[in-house]
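#structure-requests
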Amino acid sequence: MEQASLKRKKFKALVQKGGVMLPGAFNALTAKLIQRAGFKGVYISGAGLNNGAGYPDIGLLTLTEFAAMAGYIAAATDLPCVCDADTGFGEAVNVSRCVKEMERAGIAGIHIEDQVFPKRCGHLSGKQLIPVEQMVRKIKTAVLSREDGNFLIIARTDARSVENFDKAVERARAYAAAGADVIFPEALNSKEEFADFARKVKTPLLANMTEFGVSPLLSSKELFKLGYKIVIYPMGAFRTMMKATEVFYSTLLKEGTQAGMLDKMQTRKELYALLDYDSYSKLDEKAYGDFRGNINKEKSK
């Protein structure tokens, strides 16, 4: 827990100081790759976790499942991890447990959204919102429930798609007043809207640069210049992996061999290096060596 607290402290400082990019991880190995690439944090996408389990992003996984998978990811990297927590898995009391479970899992912060449960993907139509007062209670409960003051409570509003831009700003201000550390305006429609939102909401902001959605794909430099502190890339790696895997399966079926695809694969050596395979072998050798040495000492007495 001490290491998790240190991660949170460092991440909060990064957010307050300047901008940070958070690529999406959907399992522990992808988090390791994010760290190796040189990023300073990891984003755990609810869509990634749900889709990886074979479900659409409509809140079908439970808090327990989310926390378990997020815990594996957080434990696999030295980087702070921010996790999508959908609607908080229920009402205010459920949000309280959500915060405690995610803190216990080693997460640096979560975002909760103001959608009606069951939620929908933020870039699809048909979303519905809960009343502002209900979301404010969730945020206040989340703030009161965290044990570590550096654990970030991020409030997401989907009001831009459901109501309008001005209503999204109103909700954002109410959520900030309730104690949210960061505001996440989902599905803004243009660079001008991103800029206007940053002018009107002074709380640290998060921008979602998901592919194939309603928001333009702005560069991190553009967003940092506009005043955004966190930029997430939830599903880019997942989509890249799925497309490459689809090509592999179709090629294998067509050609009956994977021989022509080897140059597109991570090698066994590269995988073992990422897993730090040798450290486990060395630990096993040391443990067995110590055991064997103790047995020999006993025999020599």
